Amino acid sequence: MAELGEAALRLGFFVALYAAVAAFVGAHRRGNPDGERLLASSRNGVIVLAGLLTLALSLLAWAFFAHDFSIAYVARNNSRSTPPLYTLTGLWGGQAGSLLFWTWLLALYSALFALRRSGKDPLATYPAVGILMGIAVFFLFLLNTVEDPFARLPNPPQDGRGLNPLLEDPGMLLHPPLLYLGYVGFAVPYAMGIAALLTRRVDRHWVQTVRPWAMSAWLALGAGMVAGGWWAYRTLGWGGYWGWDPVENSALMPWLVGTAYLHSAMVQERRGTLAAWNMALLILTFTLAILGTFLTRTGVVLSVHSFAQSAVGPYFLGFLAVVLLGSIGLYLWRLEDLRSQGELESLASRECAFLLNNVLFLGTASAVLLGTLFPVLTEALQGSRVSVGAPYFVQVVAPMGLLLILLMGLGHVLAWRRTPLPELVVKLRWPVSLGLGTSIALAVLLRRPLVVLGLGVVSFALGSVLQEYHGAATRRSRTTGELYLQALWRATLRGRRRYGGYLVHAAFLVMVVGIIGSHAYVTEWQVTLAPGEALQIGRYPLTYRGIVQAQTATARGSAAVLEVQGGKGFWLRPTRMFYPSFQQSVSRPAVHSSWREDLYVVLENVSPDGKATFRIWINPLVRWIWLGGLIFLLGVGVAVWPEARPTEEGWERAVMPASEEAMGS
Predict the structure, then answer these.
(1) Are residues 98 and 180 in the same domain?
(2) Which of helix, strand or coil describes residue 571?
(3) CB 3.0-4.6 Å disulfide test: which of 46, 303, 344, 531 passes with 546?
(4) pLDDT tens readout for residues 233-276
(5) Cα–Cα distance between 621 and 626 in angstroms, integer?
(6) Are 88 and 180 in the same domain?
């Protein structure tokens, strides 16, 4: 199997190289028989590459389940005692496997793109295919030289080391694949953008074509970050869900810039402006995705997520330089073609609000990038690392986040082109009233100015979202005579893109409520208890009943039994497990969750006399963050769900009035 897997990767390298060259040459010769044959051959090559990488990944998965420890990667990330569920996780649990998984996803994306777009505007499609294959060539080069997932051991062990203990969690079945889908997914919009520059086809139709690919990558990356927060909260045992870890930041940065692109692309699609800006955002988004992969794969930054120091670092850095310098050079060369067809007519307009939110998104991403790379920069300049902690990120990002929420609320009530002042005052009446009312009530109850300000701004933005839904329902109800809820449903279906976007905004606001509550009102204790000893933690009377032995297929340890009385009462069993293969102890928290707050308990130490040391947190409103994540998925699903079209050809040709109306978010 190892020989067959290596053969698939080596053949895949040459197939990708051929498909890239054939795509560019065929596009250049398009119109004569040789050119058409090359284009068809390039498309077939992309499909063959997807098949070869599927074969390679399947063989590696089979090696994991067959416990073939003659393969070094399997021996490092699997053992006979690893549960089947986590055996699959081992595929992307290490360096070489994750790179293979990354490249496999790129091949699938490329094949899907080639099949869907091959008959539509080949002049722009095949240069994009060539760029995607060029990216695949780089990753296949790494897999065939530096990080061979099928490299063999001369003396195979009887058993492997097993999976990293922190990765033995169901969240690892979601978190890494979703992040990879996002990172890899942004390669398609990037390739389409570079192809548009090469062919000088940068009109509004190009933006419409890019949108679903950019949206799917953005959705996957956002869902991956939420899944990662859920995994960290349940597994790492430090009481939180986001620690501004460098690898967390590496996912956040392209997501922020991708969010900016999705907003400003609507302005180009609707008004013909911001073409140059949007192209720059696409290039920056993909560059940050590659930077994130570089940081994750090389260990340049210290992170609980990143891999150890690896030989792929210089190669990734060189690839990143080629992507960035080549893209900027082409961008500057074609800058005249990106001249906007329209202009901003008024500050009180939706397009102006989108431009301002773009500036804030980029400012936030820049601040996160600076904080992430600052230790590396100081080490390069001074010889010692100066760490940047969570307070820096909170102090910089939180004000920008509040301004973004404020602009979100304003954007809902602003019209395209310009909004007359009397109309703006009328539209702001209810959102402002809700925001001020919430602020006054909370000022009396909480006496925390920053919390009051934050929740007041959130209430204002939420009021503008609800006002848009209410307005759509009442207008339709008056016109059709439908009941209010029926009218609301029908209006949403007719404007899925617009109202799905509003639902995404509402999801973000729900998450912000949870983030504010869990940061502003978190409380923490560290206590040592003897068996039978009780204490009061917040509103929870807690009694430590003792220690029981705990064992899994890969670890052994202790579980503390805690009885929490009051109300219905419940039991908590935090554990501390020792993994012999890694000579490492890991604490698994116990969490009791409610809509009001979470009781979060970590067992830190057990002494020979049975005393146990615990760290305990009460984290308010954390469940609202996960609820916001689910609403986010629902909102994006509504926004991207295709509306009924007369024919595919008609949609390709026409600029639909209903589609124009549906761009409102």
Answers:
(1) no
(2) strand
(3) 531
(4) 988 888 889 988 888 898 999 999 999 999 888 888 877 778 88
(5) 10
(6) no
